[in-house]
Amino acid sequence: MDKLQAEDARYLKRKVKRGSLDVHPTEKALVVQYEVEATILGEMGDPMVGERKECQKIIRLKSLNANTDITTLARRVVEECRLIHPSKLPEVEQLLFYLQNRKKPDKQEKHSPRDLTPFEGMELDEEANINCIDDYVELLYEDIPEKVRGATLILHLARNPDNLEELLQNETALGALARVLREDWKQSVDMATTIIYVFFCFSSFSQFHGLVTHYKIGALCMNITEHELKRYDLWQDELQKKKKAYEEDPDNQNVKKEHEKALKKYQGLLSKQEQLLRVALYLLLNLAEDTRTELKMRNKNIVHMLVKTLDREDEELLVLVVSFLKKLSIFLENKNDMAETHAVEKLARLLACDHENLLNTTLRLLLNLSFDTGLRSQMVQAGLIHKLSLMLADEKQGQLCMCILYHISVDDRFKSMFAYTDCIPQLMKMLFECGESHMEPELISFCINLAANKRNAQVICEGNGLKMLMKRGLKLKDVLIMKMIRNLSQHDGPTKNLFIDYVGDLAAQIGAEEREEYVIECLGTLANLTIPDLDWELVLKEYNLVPYLKDHLKPGSAEDDLILEVVIMIGTVSMDDSCAATMAKSGIIPALIELLNAQQEDDEFVCQIVYVLYQMVVHQATRDVIIKDTQAPAYLIDLMHDKNAEIRKVCNNTLDIIAEYDKECERKIQSEKFRWHNSQWLEMVENRAMGDDGEPFMFGDDGEAFMHNGDILERPDLFYTADGIIPADGTISPEFFTDYQNGDIGQAGGFPGSMNPDMFGQSTVTPGQRPATTYGTRPDEQFFYSYAGAASR
User: Fold this and answer.
1) Residue 600, Cβ density class (10 Å: 0-12 exposed, 13-18 middle, ≥19 buried)
2) Beta bridge partners of 16
3) Rounded distance, CA 793 to CA 787, Å?
4) What pLDDT, on a 0 to 100 scale, did the predictor assign at position 303?
5) pLDDT tens sequence across 577-633
6) Which is nearest to 403 in space by CA: 374, 370, 434, 426?
7) Gyration radius of the chain's alpha carbons
8) What confidence category does residue 506 fall into, taking pLDDT thresholds of 50, 70 and 90?
9) pLDDT, tens digit, 9 for 90 and up, residues 320-353
10) In this structure, what DSSP letter does residue 433 have?
11) Does pLDDT of 20 surpass 70?
12) What is the pLDDT confidence band of residue 691, given thresholds at 50, 70 and 90?
């Protein structure tokens, strides 16, 4: 004994202090917290060095379920675990009762890309330890099951962000993982999923993206995703064959069993494949933070892969795919790829889902795509107008739906489709619910667009619609509401007649004390009311509008938009002969001519001023003033051949009326038309009159005429003679020239085959019809036809 004590001078003394009990946050397990005190004693038994360490033990309760006897299980736990004092038995029972009744986490729980949910196959019967990383790496050199186990252990370490720095220093482990993934990913889906998950943990932090790129994991994920999508197509084809065989022979039990077996196998394979796709695509989404990396993905058809994945049913996978597409959609090239792959049709299917996160992300992607005209057309074809209209009342998604519908309503060809849905009644309800409070700009902008369509305007004005709009617009002096009302007033038919009751209210708003933008809308609404039964003379007198209109015709007196509305208003009231006379007496015509000089480069101003002159010459009372006391005819003659088609139409109609009542103007007009129509011929005649020395270009260097031995100017069949236009073959009689002088060409007895009364090819406008816009087709523009259309002519 003395010898042993001499050889072993020191020995270790351990003491365990029992601690607290708790439950595991995610597993069915108890957690025991305890403390270990280790003391080194000297030869005489005196303590020399002491150490204290806190530890925990996890007791997993695999047999715990709804039918377990809690009392028996608690007694067994206390007996087998020496760390729990018998006095803790009631506390153990209470904790077990809590675990037995704890609800499972909701499957619809949201997870961000940086918090990817665990998947089947990640469970382990041991706890991973960072100190054993070398042992886990050794497993990666064994067979597939050992590789899966080793990768899973490393994954458990990587899911803790505190371990990433240390794993980063272990190049052997990361290199082995990358090698196994590159060489063996086709052999095991579980192994590929687990290893990609490890690198996903690194990709969740921007500072580790260089590591993932170094091992080329992104490119490998692209290849894996492409391969898995092809496998999915093969599975689908095989399953369809089995299903077809079963449908053709439903009584054959063997065929039925084969179909059921194939379906069960397909579902199992699909579940694992979707786990793999989720991890791989999440990793790619993280790497796409760098636009250069994103461009490389685009070059490898990432958009096509994602759109193809939209056919899946897994909602978590779909949230990821749609989020990825939304990020890509901000670039033109990716948006074009989505248009080519008809992504909108597949996205429309997702609007019927109950997954809130998926629905919200889908709507945000559609909003990005709705800025493109072609994609808006695809949305309409996919029936999105009806689907989104039904979702307008949704508090969470209604705003996004309204923004998308607003973009669709920008196109005139789609406006009428809203009249056949519940969209307009819902919008009107939202407008009226606002009361006098602030109105969302998207809501009123959407309504303004819809009001520009005649059928929509009728739906809006049904019941008390127009009355409520006028009440809010006039009371709050709301410019946007008045803009909507102005759009409603432009449509002919029953809608326009509804405004008769509000003419006085609108006219009362015209004044210098009101805001210009508000006056513009009120004035524009009045100018649209081309109603024959409306007594404009009474309105002008009662509200003293003539001085206001005259004062705002002066260039620079107000913004151009307001001056233009004043001109249009004058054109509207001038349809009444008494109003036209009042305007002429007030000196408005010279003011219009002055404004025409100042705004001669603005086609809209020119067109509307000429329209006012047209209305003036229609009435006897103002016709003489226009013709004799102003320079209007001269200006109109100058504008006869303007490049703008609408200006030419209105100008020619005005000149036709002037020519009927003033012979001198008629001769000037005919002369100008003749000179314009025959300008090339007249130029050639003038050049010939200058003599041979004046125009040597008509002859060759040796003096010989270009046209053989004759001079083209010596052909009498091309010119007017003293008796008229008499061609050599005599097909047109001398009476033609007389008809020309009388202005009868194009009517009965005129040119054979002539189509319009206007011999110079000018199309006509119905008298009294206001030009809708000046921006028509210009004569110098080329028309393009399709080959099919050209072949049919």
Assistant:
1) middle
2) 36
3) 10
4) 96
5) 889 888 888 888 889 989 988 998 899 999 999 999 998 888 887 888 888 887 888
6) 370
7) 44
8) very high
9) 999 999 999 999 999 999 999 999 999 999 999 9
10) H
11) yes
12) low
Please provide the size of the chain in residues: 793
What is the widest separation between alpha-carbon atoms in the chain?
159
Residue type, 409: S
How confident is the model over 182-205, as pLDDT tens digits?
Answer: 999 999 999 999 999 999 999 999
As given in the structure block, the two tokens for residue 317 are 């996978």
- The torsion angle over the Cα atoms of residues 158, 162, 164 and 166, rounded to 10 degrees, is -120
Mean pLDDT for all residues in the chain: 81
As a three-state string, the secondary structure of 83-98 is CCCHHHHHHHHHHHHH
CB count within 10 Å of CB 98 equals 10
Long-range contacts of 377-380 (CB under 8 A, 24+ apart): 377/411, 378/339, 378/342, 378/344, 378/345, 379/344, 379/348, 379/404, 379/408, 380/408, 380/414, 380/417
Our measurement of the distance from residue 673's CA atom to the centroid of its chain's CA atoms, rounded to an integer in Å, reads 50
Degrees, nearest 5: CA angle 75-80-82: 105
Structure tokens given for 344? 């909108």
Sheet bearing 11-23, strands edge to edge: 11-23, 29-41, 47-60
**Structural contact between residues 387 and 405, judged by C-beta atoms closer than 8 angstroms:** no
| pLDDT attached to residue 662 | 79
Q: Which two tokens stand for residue 516?
A: 């210009």
In the structure, what pLDDT confidence band is assigned to residue 726 with cuts at 50, 70 and 90? very low
pLDDT bracket for residue 690 (50, 70, 90): low
Distance CA 685, CA 699 (A): 15
Residues 6 or more apart in contact with residue 72 via CB below 8 angstroms? none
Please name which of 267, 324, 325, 333 lies closest in space to residue 299, comparing C-alpha atoms: 333
| Burial 712-722, CB ≥16 within 10 A → b, else e | ebeeeeeeeee
Name the β-bridge partners of 41: 11, 47
